[in-house]
Amino acid sequence: MTVIVRIVAPSTAVVDRSKAVAEGGIDGAADRVGGTPTDGGVGSLATIAAIRYAIFVDEQGVDVAIEWDEYETVAEHVLLVDEGRPIGTARVRRADGALKCERIAVRASDRGAGWGERLMAVCETIARERGLDKCILHAQRRVEEFYHRQGYGVVGEPFEEAGIPHVEMRLELTD
């Protein structure tokens, strides 16, 4: 069974505890958190932090100092868990009259199985729940085609973010 965990606007203390265990690995993050407010379970912010650390910091070389930013406590964090195993995550927040989809990540071992599409569908559902009619994101150029397949179009010129080439993309939501 697949479960979608949504964590809305976590406190600074929860974010800090989660960051502290992130580098320990995805499957062990929740265990190391114990009984803290992150809940100590697989559906915790610590698990989200560990997925982001594994993908953005370890795999892609993003500086850990910029992976977590001032938006963590105002954003909604999404986690997909399948059969008790954390699969992928996204972070969303309102920006410029749209839902900005950020930190979208699927475990390397689970890519190509439709989980990214499922994460994007959850993001679009959240946008509709909030009465927004578009989603925006900064796509890494290497996965730009993935977002095109989801209906996103390029807006503007390519740019660099965290040392990685990106492009802004937008999806106009319809009923």
From TrEMBL:
Positions of the N-acetyltransferase domain: 35-174
Pfam family of the protein (one): Acetyltransf_10
Lineage: Archaea, Methanobacteriati, Methanobacteriota, Stenosarchaea group, Halobacteria
This protein's UniProt keywords: Acyltransferase, Transferase
Keyword Protein biosynthesis in record: no
UniProt GO molecular function: acyltransferase activity, transferring groups other than amino-acyl groups
Organism of derivation: Halohasta litchfieldiae
Record has Transferase as a keyword: yes
Signal sequence extent: none
Stated name of the protein: Predicted N-acyltransferase, GNAT family
